[in-house]
Amino acid sequence: MKKASRIYLVLLFGFLYAPLLVMILISFNGGESTAHMTGFSLRWYREMFKDAATLQAFKNTLTLSISAASASTVLGTLAAVGIDRMKSARLRSIILSVTNIPMMNPDIVTGISLMLLFVFAASLIGYSTVLSFWTLLIAHITFCLPYVILSVLPKLRQMDRSLPEAAMDLGCTPMQSFFRIELPFIGPGILTGFIMAFTLSFDDFVISNFTSGAGFETLTIHIFAMIKKSVKPDIYALSTLIFAAVLLLLLLYNLLGGREEDMAL
Amino acid sequence: MKRGILQRAAAAPHVVWSALFIIAPLIFVLYYTFTGQDGSFSLDNITRLGKGNYLMIFVNSLCMALIATVICFVIAYPAAYIFSRMKKKSQKLCILLIMLPLWMNFLITTYSWMTILEDTGVINTLLGLVGLGPVHMINTPGAVITGMVFCFLPYMILPIYSVMAGIDPKLLEAAADLGCSPVQIFMKVVWPLSVGGVISGVTMVFVPSVSTFYISQKLGGGTFQLIGDTIESYFTGTAVNYHFGAALSLILMVLILISMAVMNRFGDDEQGGALI
Q1: Nearest by CB to B111, which of A109, A139, A231?
Q2: Is it the case that residue B3 has pLDDT exceeding 60?
Q3: Among all residues of chain A, which has the CA nearest to that of B247?
Q4: Is the domain of A33 the same as that of A161?
């Protein structure tokens, strides 16, 4: 039984990591092909760092993801607090259902529905298009919001209501009690929300494909455009670097997270 | 109470945002569906759905997504069970390894699958070494389903794992003490308790599978069109028609809503049955 499950896991991880392995191997290819290895070289890494468009797209993606994650974290945390305090259960459930729509809807529908809104807005003010960094930012905040709210809301529910009350009895103003008692308590939820929002925004292709304009290219849009022309191993080099960065971050997060748990014990 | 009003008002920006960027865009989908190119009311977009091969495209997409979802479930369920019975530290590592591929861009990983499945690709080269093949795999429905399963498998494993990890081992021991066979333990304890995770997993795999548009283009080689491809072509392709594209999206949305309602009903029955 033990042996069977070990074989099963090897097959599973083999399946999940096969394309990543191919990607990493071919990023070191000496030749032009993405299908056959002809010698080992760092050529594609050099070419990638020389490619201004790729680097610009990477910077754009970081700008966008950080802005979208920050904005949706602030907006989402405020919303979670508001929803949690709402007296009418009916109103609360209506707001939550609407919030969940971008999570339930296929990305392609969210993307085209926002695109139609932006097309209409452009015709309203007489522009040929309004698609730009700002429309992309609006779209990203919109699909990140539910994830932030759903990470913060359970934390608020878990909190003992008497804590902020005690703080206020002891002379805190409501604002002070919020920043000193509630915010630290729901902190981990906010952080999870921020990280989720950042990841989703960084990795999004489908919604960006419909809401970005010609002037602002994110990494995924850039990769899509490159793939349409011809694929060279430089995209694999770029992805291998991203893979390494993600691996490092996850390990770091895990180590730090592990320490926090130890401290809690 | 100043505090109460202030804190309840905290949701106001979000409510305005939702109205502008969630509700309004959906109203535009409706508006475009029921108007023609000249802006006047028309049902042409809806009647056009009945013509041509759009029905086939919808049926194809639903079948492919269904097959991908079933395969994901069959792979994920035992995996989630194995993970949940591991030592805490190995569990954490395994879940990390399951999540890692999710962070990679699916455009790139799909392209890697092309390299693996091609007629002269990795698998056929390996088969050639042992004197087998070549097997034609790329540009077949199987290749597209492989791509879907790869992309969405973690979304099936993670929710099932999280409910499995929450099952108290004492329950299983109690069932065994009371004379249940392993099969009975599974049918009467493990399965009913994990059904919630299965339902969220199924939703999280089915919805993106049915609406995907890139995987089918690359691994299917354009030999067959799915609904996602069709919608995309009306918005960014050469034959742009927002009105008909909106009609297709509306139908896709309705189909998904129906599927989810059916799935939730199925889930309620399962849980209701388990209680009895």
Answers
A1: A231
A2: no
A3: A109
A4: no
Q: Is B6 on the interface with A (CB under 8 A)?
A: yes
Q: What's the pTM value of the predicted model, to 2 decimals?
A: 0.86
Is the backbone peptide bond immediately before B134 cis, with ω within 30 degrees of 0?
yes
Give the residue-averaged pLDDT of B39-56: 82
The set of residues, in sequence order, having a beta carbon less than 8 Å from that of B182 and lying 6+ positions away, is none
Q: How many domains does chain B have?
A: 1
CATH for A162: 1.10.3720.10
Is residue A54 within 8 A of residue A48, CB to CB? The reply is yes
Residue of B nearest to A209 (CA): B236
Q: Do A263 and A197 fall into the same domain?
A: no
B235 interaction partners in chain A (CB closer than 8 Å): 112, 115, 210
Residue B118 lies in a domain: yes
Does A176 reside within a domain? Answer: yes
Residue A260 has pLDDT above 50, yes or no: no
**What's the ipTM?**
0.86
| B1 pLDDT higher than 60 | no
Q: For residue B41, what are the β-bridge partners?
A: B35
**CA–CA distances in Å: residue B252 to residues A106, A108, B243, B248, B258:** 9, 10, 14, 6, 10
Read off the amino acid at residue A167.
A
- By C-alpha distance, which of B225, B226, B90 is closest to B165? B90
Is residue B245 a part of any domain in this protein?
A: yes
A227 CB near a chain B CB, below 8 Å?
A: yes
CA triple A120-A121-A123, angle to 5 deg: 65
- Judging contacts by C-beta atoms under 8 Å, the chain A residues touching residue B100 are 246-247, 250
User: Is A47 inside any structural domain?
Assistant: no
Note whether A82 contacts B14, CB cutoff 8 Å.
Answer: yes
Distance CA(A177)–CA(A166), nearest Å, equals: 9
How far is the C-alpha of A62 from the C-alpha of A217, rounded, in Å? 11
